[in-house]
């Protein structure tokens, strides 16, 4: 009787060691990213990111593999039953895929399947949303508060579940809500140190800074950029939302211009997507808090997904480095 091949999660797979090289496995995974590339010898291959709620791994599928056409036809966001062999490349888990079969609607509807695939923010979404609304209510300037309320009434529930990025930081369900709320918490702690920064304006800018992502991103199991997201980008889309509702709320011209500037400059650098450099106290403050939480969000996620045997994470593009994930030894 042949040995039964185990169905493993990403966390299970990343816990395997060199001694497991060649071991067969089965996993049910989402195609998070699929890129066609050409090697130096002219041969084509796909770079594939596969994941579930516990993590993601990358692997290479060469053009002559039967899996290549299956993945290309299924595309990003497809849920696949993957069969493969454990292999490592430069010390990292990078399996050889032998077979991939898309799950049909009936299989996807089975209890627990989707829940096992969708990564979510570690905090409770309902509690975060309640606290977020408290942050809106904390804006004392009436027209600023009405502006913020107007934007969130327009974007609706999308803000509550959309990720904050495709891959870089808070790239999971409720990620944008979590990222924005973390920024608001950090701002409340830091603002007393910087009395030159208008607290109401900075808080409004934080709450609104990434609202364009509600339009920029689409997709349920794998996030991709929408047509508007590609053609305009979340900075411009967020600026448009802010301007529309600022004018509707009759926000005075000086505050509206400064609020718009926060949206346009929050990415920090033009090469990161900013339309302009931050040139107001509030713009500088928001861009710095945004960068702080984006980078520490990457750190938090890497620590959550770290395997017990791993000393370092995979290279994090946003940090340009792997992250040391092994905890400090206990004191004493």
Short description:
The chain is of the alpha+beta class and 332 residues long.
How does this model look, in words?
- The mean pLDDT is 89.
- The strands form 3 sheets. Strands 3-2-1-4-7 form a 5-stranded antiparallel beta sheet. Strands 5-6 form a two-stranded antiparallel sheet. A two-stranded antiparallel ribbon has the order 8-9.
- It has 14 helices and 9 strands.
- Strand 5 (88-89) and strand 6 form a beta hairpin.
- Helices cover 43% and strands 16% of the residues.
- The chain is elongated, with a radius of gyration of 22 Å.
- The termini are far apart.
- The protein has helices at 10-14, 66-74, 105-108, 113-117, 125-137, 142-155, 158-161, 175-190, 199-208, 213-216, 227-231, 233-248, 253-265, 281-305; strands at 24-38, 44-52, 55-62, 79-85, 88-89, 92-93, 96-102, 217-218, 224-225.
- Helix 5 (125-137) crosses helix 8 (175-190), helix 6 (142-155) runs parallel beside helix 9 (199-208) and helix 6 (142-155) crosses helix 12.
Low-confidence stretches: none
- Distinct helical segment count: 14
C-alpha end-to-end distance: 53 Å
Give the strand order of the largest sheet, numbering strands 1, 2, ... along the chain. Answer: 3-2-1-4-7
Any idea how many domains?
2
What layout of secondary structure does this protein have?
Layout lengths: L9 H5 L9 E15 L5 E9 L2 E8 L3 H9 L4 E7 L2 E2 L2 E2 L2 E7 L2 H4 L4 H5 L7 H13 L4 H14 L2 H4 L13 H16 L8 H10 L4 H4 E2 L5 E2 L1 H5 L1 H16 L4 H13 L15 H25 L27
Antiparallel strand pairs: 1-2, 1-4, 2-3, 4-7, 5-6, 8-9
Helix pairs in contact: 5-8, 6-9, 6-12, 8-9, 8-14, 9-13, 9-14, 12-13, 13-14
